[in-house]
Write a structure and sequence with these properties.
The complex is a heterotrimer of chains A (252), B (316) and C (332).
Chain A: E1 4-15, E2 18-29, E3 33-37, H1 44-51, E4 61-69, E5 72-73, H2 81-87, E6 88-91, H3 102-111, H4 118-131, H5 135-138, H6 151-164, E7 169-173, H7 181-194, E8 199-203, H8 207-213, E9 216-221, E10 224-230, H9 231-236, H10 241-247
Parallel strand pairs in A: 3-8, 3-9, 6-7, 7-8
Antiparallel strand pairs in A: 1-2, 1-4, 4-5, 9-10
Helix pairs in contact in A: 3-4, 3-6, 4-6, 6-7
Chain B: H1 2-5, H2 11-43, H3 48-52, E1 55-56, E2 61-62, H4 65-96, H5 101-113, H6 118-141, H7 152-176, H8 180-188, H9 193-222, E3 241-246, E4 249-254, H10 263-273, H11 281-314
Antiparallel strand pairs in B: 1-2, 3-4
Chain C: H1 21-25, H2 32-69, E1 78-81, E2 87-90, E3 93-94, E4 101-102, H3 105-136, H4 139-153, H5 157-176, H6 184-208, H7 212-220, H8 225-236, H9 238-254, H10 257-262, H11 280-287, H12 296-330
The chains are: A alpha/beta (252), B mainly alpha (316), C mainly alpha (332).
């Protein structure tokens, strides 16, 4: 039996006058990988940012509808967006490490939570680096600038940084789009391992990647959720014509 | 194939490009000549005594010590006013304020204020600080005519308003240059706004803010027009210093209610209004050399800071 | 359109009435420090705003009193009754004479007679320097020269005034034998030292912001460097270059120390660049120290301040609009 982690009901989002998300309803299962696919500008990244309220940071954004995480509406007035984001990690399209050392990047999330205990920080750093399969590559240069790492290593460090605050959900916004095939493979492998512990939502424009890493796939088009199903079903036997056109490469 | 071998001659191009080179060269030569003249004439008189001594013999002998002291005192107080106010308001404007028509009007006004003539700021300083604030303080404290007259404090305050747009604009620029993705990363990890500003934005923006501050100091130290009628004095026998005593223990402090000598003003007044401009000419050149050296030093520091700043950002 | 959900019907939806542990974790925190910091910054922002507003208010408050005390037409001319009873219309600035005359005409002419030649000279040298830096100089030299230009832009204007007074005036007195030793031409040369760096660096910015593809496209079609500059780069950067000239002109109008020291300060009505003139800025600078507060003369000087403020504010605004238009056009 699967458990629903995130459940979204009739969600609309407007940038000023322009409607970017139209009546989205979806249920995302816990400890699985759910992929959002669709052509660029279809709203998949916007919707990802709805899930940890990153859109709050943009002026002139209006929303309607509810997003329930474990039954709690995260857009409720009682909810603290800062605390919310601590529970939901996010990995961005391009690695966005701070111009600090590897170690400082890793413990940033802990430090802002007021954790100062060196032992705890060290242990978390090691643990998350191992989780992100990066420990063997960087253990001897933790105090070197993070930006001296290779592109793929940087992105895995971003994942490790997100894991350090022990979130329950990890959102990934095209995490491998700027990487070479070898680094991409490593990231995908990592995602596969992480889903035993975390609920993962990944946005990708790479359909092979969606097929490889995800359990569920949602297809977005022009701000609407066209089809949502098991990944195998979406790629082999989609119900909607638009989905079929997209996954077979006829447009997008 | 013959055509390719033939060298194409763009006569017009050769003329114009060399003309541009020539104009640039002429410019450089004139600047170097003038700078050279100041250095040659000014270095003759330059000595430790010149920098520290008071003027003597009706300004024809002695040094410019009080003028340098006044310049440092005025710019110091100016910085105390302008930098915290400028940096904090820029942080508010860039990090907290929503992007509305109102904030855009403010941004535009600040940009344009930086281009308003400095003499106009002098008028503002006289009308607002001296005649409005100063006179009212005098009335309330019944101090007679103490604050309601040209003085070091009001010159500093006026220069602070003058450089405020510079500080705000350069701080805004520095904050803006911190990539949005870094803020996203911080917010995504559950940082609050202030945590993000403190740990991510400010460390990266610091060299840029420092650059703006140094440029503001340099601008303030070189400015003459607004302080002409705000308390700059031709000659003062004493430094604008007062002993601040707590019990028997006294420390000398800048006295903000006194008039002051100012390096830039000193050059102006010696060159135009001293009884014998030719006799004071060496002192004029010496003062000019000191002022130029001071502003160059500040500006070079600012440029180096910015260079470092851009290098840090360039690595991202 | 709602997505098909037939294949995940075995999902168990958690009971919403029961508060989950997740709900507790994301409950509202009261962040007092966060709020205090925000208000602290807001107060600073408000104070800065107040100062900006005060500048407008005080300047205009004092300046508009001039219109009550003196009258608008008196700022243009005064009809003087002569000894023989005839009326002579005079355009003069004599605020301290028995019959005070407040015509701004000589001052505005003086300002234009220094600012316009200064801007023309600066445009020639400044645009040339901008093109040189952006298109002609090799990158290493440019790396060195750009900060140099900035350094020169930072020279205090009193230094330039002094140089024109001590060196420039004598040099041109021997060379050109002008009507007055200190004149509009000397002042405009001094102004050029201030404006050239402005025009040069903004022109360089404007040229530099043009995408390299455009240059490559032109070279690819077999154009020479000059043809590329002339037909591709300059037209594309036209608005940026114009904005730099407008800004330079605004700066020339507002500059005080150079004209105060080098223009001769006689309020002549003249079109001869080799005569002494008196600018608006120099008038304020020279007379403000001596007027008594509340006198007609005092308000008249504030009125000049308004005129200066308004002119430069609008010149800057125009330049800013031109530049922001250019930015929009150049971002593809």
């Amino acid at each position: 039996m699967k458990e629903v982690k995130i459940s979204v009901n009739n969600f609309d989002l407007y940038y000023g006058e322009k409607q970017a998300l139209k009546n989205i309803s979806i249920e995302i299962p816990a400890k699985k990988v759910t992929a959002f696919i669709g052509p660029s500008g279809c709203g998949k990244s916007t919707f990802l940012r709805v899930l940890n309220r990153m859109n709050d940071l943009i002026d002139h954004v209006k929303i309607q509808g509810e997003v329930l995480i474990e039954g709690v509406n995260i857009y409720d007035k009682q909810i603290d967006v800062v605390n919310l984001r601590k529970r939901i990690g996010m990995v961005f399209q391009k690695s966005n490490l701070f111009p600090k050392t590897i170690y400082e990047n890793l413990i940033y999330g802990l430090k802002i939570n007021g954790i100062r205990d060196k032992k705890v920080l060290d242990e978390t750093a090691e643990k998350t680096l191992k989780q992100a399969a990066l420990w063997n590559e960087v253990y001897d240069r933790l105090h070197e600038p993070a930006l001296s790492l290779s592109g793929g290593q940087q992105q895995r460090l971003c994942i490790a940084r997100a894991l350090a605050v022990e979130p329950e959900i990890v959102l990934m916004d095209e995490p491998a789009s700027a990487l070479d095939p070898l680094s991409t493979a490593k990231i995908e492998e990592l995602i596969h391992e992480l889903k035993t512990k975390y609920t993962i939502v990944i946005v990708t424009h790479n359909m092979q990647q969606a097929a490889r890493v995800s359990d569920q796939t949602a297809f977005f088009y022009l701000g609407e959720l066209i089809e949502y199903d098991k990944t195998s079903k979406i790629f082999t036997n989609p119900t909607k014509k638009q989905t079929e056109d997209y996954v077979t490469g006829r447009f997008g | 194939m013959e055509q390719l071998k033939q060298k194409h001659k763009d006569v017009q191009g050769i003329i114009f490009i060399n003309l541009i080179r020539l104009l640039f060269l002429v410019l450089v030569i004139i600047l170097l000549l003038l700078l050279g003249k100041i250095v040659v004439e000014g270095s003759g008189i330059l000595s430790l005594e010149f920098v520290f001594d008071s003027p003597r013999n009706n300004m024809t002998k002695g040094g410019i010590g009080p003028a340098i002291f006044g310049t440092i005192a005025v710019t110091f107080i100016m910085i105390l006013f302008a930098v915290p106010l400028g940096v904090f308001s820029a942080i508010y404007l860039n990090e907290y304020a929503k992007d509305t028509f109102f904030t855009r009007v403010i941004r535009t006004s600040i940009n344009n204020l930086a281009g308003v003539p400095s003499i106009v700021f002098g008028l503002f300083g006289l009308g607002f600080f001296i005649l409005f604030i100063g006179r009212n303080i005098d009335d309330v404290l019944e101090t007679g005519l103490l604050f309601g007259q040209p003085a070091l404090l009001w010159a500093s305050a006026t220069l602070a308003v003058l450089v405020l747009p510079i500080v705000i604009v350069s701080t805004l620029e520095a904050l803006n240059s911190v990539p949005k993705t870094h803020r996203d990363a911080s917010y995504g990890l559950g940082a609050t706004k202030w945590q993000t500003i403190k740990h991510v934005v400010l460390p990266q923006a610091r060299p840029g803010i420092l650059t703006g501050t140094i440029l503001a100091i340099s601008r303030g130290a070189g400015e003459t027009a607004p302080i002409l009628f705000l308390g700059a004095a031709f000659f003062l026998p004493n430094l604008p210093v007062v002993d601040l005593c707590i019990g028997d223990y006294c420390i000398p402090m800048i006295n903000p209610t006194e008039q002051f000598m100012y390096l830039a003003y000193h050059i102006f007044i010696l060159a135009t209004q001293s009884s014998n401009p030719t006799k004071t000419l060496p002192i004029q050149y010496g003062s000019t050399l000191v002022l130029i050296a001071l502003t160059f030093l500040l500006n070079i520091t600012a440029i180096l800071f910015r260079y470092r700043f851009r290098k840090i950002l360039g690595r991202l | 359109m709602i997505a098909e959900q037939s294949h995940i019907t075995d999902i168990k939806t958690p009971d919403r009435s029961q508060e989950s542990s997740f709900g507790k974790k994301i409950k509202k925190s009261i962040r007092i420090k966060e709020r205090i910091i925000k208000y602290f910054f807001a107060v600073n922002g408000a104070m800065a705003l107040v100062f900006i507003i005060l500048i407008f208010v005080f300047l205009f408050k004092e300046g508009f009193k001039a219109l009550e005390h003196i009258g608008f037409l008196d700022f243009i001319y005064l009809d003087q009754v002569q000894a023989d009873g005839s009326v002579k219309r005079v355009y003069e600035w004599y605020p301290t004479s028995a019959e005070a005359r407040y015509s701004l005409v000589p001052l505005i002419l003086g300002t234009l007679l220094t600012a316009i030649p200064g801007t023309i000279i600066s445009t020639i040298f400044g645009v040339a320097a901008g093109i040189y830096l952006s298109e002609v100089a090799n990158p290493k030299l440019k790396e060195f020269l750009k900060p140099m230009i900035e350094l020169f832009a930072g020279i205090p204007t009193v230094v330039l005034g002094f140089i024109m007074l001590a060196v420039g005036a004598s040099f041109f007195n021997d060379l050109l034998n002008p009507v007055n030793r200190l004149n509009a031409f000397i002042a405009s040369l001094g102004l050029s030292f201030v404006i050239i760096p402005i025009i040069a660096s903004l022109t360089e910015d404007a040229l530099h912001s043009i995408p390299n593809d455009l240059r490559m496209a032109s070279y690819g079609l077999g154009a020479t460097k000059w043809q590329t500059i002339r037909h591709v780069i300059l037209p594309a950067a036209f608005s940026g270059v114009s904005a730099s000239i407008i800004l330079g002109f605004g700066r020339a109008i507002g500059e005080t120390m150079i004209v105060l020291m080098a223009s001769g300060n006689a309020a002549n009505i003249t079109a001869n660049i080799f005569e002494s003139v008196r600018t608006m800025t120099a008038t304020i600078a020279a007379e403000m120290g001596e007027v008594s507060q509340g006198s007609d003369h005092y308000y008249a000087l504030f009125f000049i301040g308004i005129v200066l403020f308004t002119i430069t504010f609008f010149l800057n605004l125009i330049a800013e609009i031109v530049i922001s238009k250019m930015r929009k056009k150049n971002t593809f």
